[in-house]
Design a protein that fits this description.
Length: 369
């Protein structure tokens, strides 16, 4: 069935929750910032979330996608993804799937284990999720999806339940405005809308008009915009043209965990913060590594940073030796030595105009004297 529904703007009133003059609030939870950290699959564990929080500007952060069966069995991988601590607050735990009973039980588990918010994933476009009828596959089964959400809301009494959507499966099935309106009626406390269809995945430009249609479809609850927010001005533009009450930042934070801080400051003051120093960037990178040691183990920290150095290096150029050393990393001692050597090299050469960066690769090149 092809379903594309527009909802009359008349449902809005003077107390509309998307009035940007009021602080962002999800149910009874008042957020310090309208900037949220997305549940970035494969990246957004407690080790990374703590780094982003330490930079500032985070109103709410979210776990990676959690499998209800995994958290109920408390298997090793699910417990790693759900791990949190007192400093990791407020936290939203995101669940995916289509089994109502398991989702209800997992939602109660999440609240019992530190979740201030329970989020239902209706937007993940990845095949391994949608083929199990989870993620954005829920956009194709609206009656069953609405019945499932109603049960989850009834199961969770002490925390708000939210949902993260895409616009629809494809351009022939744009269902987000209709679904958002119905979810609000059921008691969903907030909705995050990624301005792409499942078919688009992460290609093409985010559709601000699609997000605006979702904003227009609800009466009271806040709508959070998501997609292509890579700098403070992009966040402000999304809020201005769509009317959303906040923004959720995903991939842009992977190489710049201070991005949420910069966005929150710009939204509050209209001023762009200067970029952090190399010393600050290295401190946050080091914190990330030692968080992995704390919450996981040495092997995971070493293996993870062999991959993650490419993200951090985007804002550390020129840093060829640092990247090459960490890509061959074997121990925390080697990590510390690599960072210290890099900082020492930067200090020695900060006033040396004979060193420049290749703008394409970031590799240092010594010019002839």
């Amino acid at each position: 069935m092809i379903l594309s529904v527009a909802v009359d703007n008349g449902v809005q009133n003077s107390t509309h929750a998307n009035d940007r003059s009021t602080p962002l609030q999800i149910g009874s939870l008042k957020l310090d910032s309208p900037v949220l950290l997305a549940p970035i699959a494969g990246y957004c564990d407690v080790s990374f979330r703590l780094v982003v929080r330490s930079c500032g500007g985070v109103g709410l952060a979210c776990t990676d996608l959690l499998c209800p069966e995994g958290v109920l069995r408390e298997n090793k991988r699910s417990m790693e993804l759900a791990a949190t601590c007192l400093a990791d607050s407020p936290l939203s735990m995101q669940l995916y799937g289509a089994d109502t009973d398991k989702l209800c039980d997992a939602a109660r588990w999440a609240v019992d284990h530190g979740a201030a918010v329970v989020d239902i994933n209706m937007g993940c476009p990845v095949d391994k999720i949608t083929k199990r009828n989870g993620g954005s596959a829920l956009l194709c089964r609206l009656p069953a999806t609405l019945a499932m959400v109603e049960k989850v809301i009834q199961a969770v009494k002490t925390a708000p339940v939210t949902a993260k959507l895409r616009l629809g499966w494809d351009d022939r099935r744009i269902v987000a405005p209709f679904l958002a309106n119905r979810l609000e009626q059921l008691g969903i406390a907030a909705i995050t809308i990624h301005g792409r269809t499942t078919e688009m995945r992460f290609s093409g430009s985010v559709r601000h008009d699609g997000i605006a249609a979702v904003v227009a479809a609800v009466n009271r609850i806040p709508i959070i915009g998501n997609g292509d927010i890579t700098d403070p001005k992009a966040a402000a533009h999304m809020i201005r043209v769509t009317g959303c009450r906040g923004v959720m930042v995903g991939r842009g934070a992977l190489s710049a965990p201070w991005l949420l801080r910069d966005i929150a400051h710009y939204l509050r003051t209209g001023e762009l913060l200067p970029p952090p120093s190399i010393d600050e960037k290295c401190r946050w990178m080091r914190d990330h590594f030692y968080n992995l040691l704390r919450f996981r183990n040495e092997r995971v920290a070493v293996c993870e940073f062999r991959k993650r150095i490419s993200w951090y290096a985007r804002h550390l150029h020129p840093c060829r030796d640092l990247k090459e050393t960490i890509r061959k990393l074997n121990s925390p001692v080697e990590f510390d030595q690599a960072v210290e050597a890099f900082l020492h090299w930067r200090q020695e050469n900060q006033d040396n105009r004979a060193i420049v960066a290749d703008v394409d690769t970031g590799l240092p090149m010594a010019l002839a004297m």
